[in-house]
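Appendix C: a fully annotated inverse folding record. The material below is reproduced so that readers can follow the format used throughout the book. The structure is listed first as tokens, followed by the designed sequence.
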């Protein structure tokens, strides 16, 4: 009788004020009434909700970063096409031309239909690289070049204009100002809305580019 009472007291010593176990006695059987308490359904729901919120935030941040990188890449390819045209004209020692098309994500450098002067012997260069992923960001692109960009035999540019680029999902708008003779005069951030006739004065220098 005494041993039974002592055993009951020892078992109850491991119970908190709420009746839950806080200490498992040494050598206690797995089938003992005093066992570690598991998670309740409300607690599990709270954990699931927190994980869902963190996952959503991570996806939004990752998506914004990816779109920004795509925009920066399109800007660099815009400048690269200009440099390729200049190099091609210098190599062949004769003037040549490239056409800058504005057609959303299909925008880019291409050979013009006219042959005066001859097209630059370079491959077409789209501004957006095709990733093949579903839901790829759509490029917003506009420029005010009056026609094909003409490069002289010594690599100078005979025509100028302003181009602006943006991608939905990021508030960054990039711009490139091309001046006649000099080439790329300014590349930076555009402080205005994208229109069919961008303004060179709205293209502000940006050291991050």
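Designed amino acids, in order:
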């Amino acid at each position: 009788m005494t041993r039974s009472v002592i055993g009951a007291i020892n078992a109850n010593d491991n119970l908190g004020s709420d009746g839950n176990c806080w200490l498992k006695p040494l050598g206690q059987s797995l089938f003992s009434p005093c066992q570690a308490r598991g998670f309740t359904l409300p607690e599990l729901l709270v954990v699931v909700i927190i994980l869902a919120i963190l996952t959503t935030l991570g996806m939004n941040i990752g998506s914004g970063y990816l779109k920004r990188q795509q925009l920066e890449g399109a800007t660099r390819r815009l400048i690269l096409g200009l440099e390729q045209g200049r190099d091609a004209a210098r190599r062949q020692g004769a003037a040549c031309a490239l056409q800058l098309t504005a057609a959303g994500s299909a925008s880019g450098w291409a050979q013009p239909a006219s042959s005066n002067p001859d097209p630059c012997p370079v491959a077409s260069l789209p501004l957006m690289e095709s990733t093949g992923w579903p839901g790829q960001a759509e490029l917003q692109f506009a420029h005010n070049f009056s026609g094909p960009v003409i490069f002289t035999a010594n690599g100078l540019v005979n025509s100028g204009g302003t181009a602006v680029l943006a991608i939905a999902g990021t508030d960054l708008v990039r711009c490139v100002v091309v001046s006649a003779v000099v080439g790329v005069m300014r590349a930076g951030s555009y402080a205005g809305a994208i229109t069919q006739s961008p303004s060179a004065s709205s293209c502000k220098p940006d050291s991050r580019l």
